[in-house]
Amino acid sequence: MKSLLFFWCLTAAGHQAWSQYHKSPPRQWDRYPPEAQLPGFHLHKSELVQMDDDPQMEEVLLFSRNNGHYPYFDLFKNYYVIIDYYTKEIAYRSDVIISTRRDLNLEDRNADGKAELYRSYFLDGKFTVDEHGNNLKVTWVYDTISF
Amino acid sequence: MKRFILLMLVSLSASDAAGQIKTLLITGHDQHHWWEGGSDAVKMILENSGLFTVEIRVLQAPENDSERPQFSRYDLVVINYGGPTWGAQMRKEFEAYVSGGGGVVVLHSSVVPMDDWEQYNRMIGLGAWNGRNEKDGPYVYWKEGRAVYDYTPGPAGYHGLQHPFTVIHRREDHPILKGLPAEWRHFKDELYARLRGPARGLEILATAYETVGNDTTGRDEPVLWTVSYGKGRVFVSVLGHAGNDPELRYSMECTGYQVTLLRGAEWAATGVVTQEAPKDFPLKELSTFRKDFKAPWHAH
């Protein structure tokens, strides 16, 4: 009976010891999962911030591509991906927007300790110019992404 | 009297019966540029000066030699082309034309194609992209008052986002630049950088400081240069992007682009520049435009 008890203690401790050293499968990619990047887009900039209640930080990535050069402005297609900095899991991927800017504007304007992502873009991706590519007319949309 | 006769002979040999420079503009096959609009603008710029007659030749399948022009009929060949390497016979005839004294102007992205044609690389002096690297020659840029030949390994070709930039003349006494402001504001354009090539017989006429993008060189990059090839004269301007996204050619509307093109073309064809410095040329802090691709009434 003593031997059985000793064996049981040994296996229980061994199991706990084994559990501590369990590790996840290795990643094959570096900064972000490949599915974060849509074809034709490239990473323009990224920033590490706190966006939720979890103590782990979030990394916000801006992917961008050119969408036309005009005399006095350029257009870009942008989308944002938010990943957990440690697990590298994708928490959020935005739709693609068109803008004259490639901003990654993260601020905690409501002072709740969590940053929000502020965007400005063309309504429905629509705009007009004259025959010379001047006089951009567009309806701007301003919105916020937060957790 | 002797000088007068010599001048007459030079002008007769380089011009047609009406005293104009017969020009062939070779174009086509450039998926990154609005080559139709760009070539149309070049034709207007040259012909509106009254100095040139321009015939545009769009190459469809130049690699099989069937479209090769008779180069000897022209005083000047302008290349605004981005397609496959010309056929062997066309290459041979063009090499003979240039080395025999023919004038050539190479525009913007025409320093990209035909990287596998050794003599074309020699004519353009510096090239970009299409796999060009240290095997093609040194990077060439301007530093501390002279041209630097940098043999560091690496790929050729880079440009950041389009932007306005200042062009600085490095050979103010050259006929193409003489009398023009030594620094001028070029309107929004692609600024080519990391150019490299054989660079033999190369003379840098003007540079612009490259500072845009994540991969910027931070160097004074050549934007206008000449190459001597046999008895021929080659003028290269990498200014003048004509976009296909959308089809706009605002970079070519810049007066500085048009005037340097006109002067470079005349120099390549004849060896001299007869055009006076125009009064509408851009200044150091001021871009000026010729939106109709011709000199305004107040230019002279």
Explained architecture:
The complex is a heterodimer of chains A (147) and B (300). With 147 residues, chain A is mainly beta. Helix content of chain A is 13%, strand content 38%. In chain A, the strands form 2 sheets. In chain A, strands 1, 2, 3, 4 and 5 form a 5-stranded antiparallel β-sheet that branches. In chain A, strands 6-7-8 form a 3-stranded antiparallel β-sheet, with no helix packed on it. Chain A is elongated and about 95 Å long. Chain B has 300 residues and is an alpha/beta fold. Chain B starts with a helix and ends in a 30-residue tail after the last helix. Mean pLDDT of chain B is 94; it is low at 4-15. The interface between A and B is small, with 10 and 10 residues.
What is the total tally of β strands of chain A?
8
Helix fraction bin of chain B: 10-25%
Helix content of chain A: 10-25%
Low-confidence stretches of chain B: 4-15
Q: Could you tell me the radius of gyration of chain B in angstroms? A: 18 Å
Distance between the termini of chain A: 56 Å
Distance between the termini of chain B: 30 Å
- Please tally the helical runs of chain A, counting DSSP H or I stretches of 4 or more residues: 1
**Low-pLDDT regions of chain A:** none
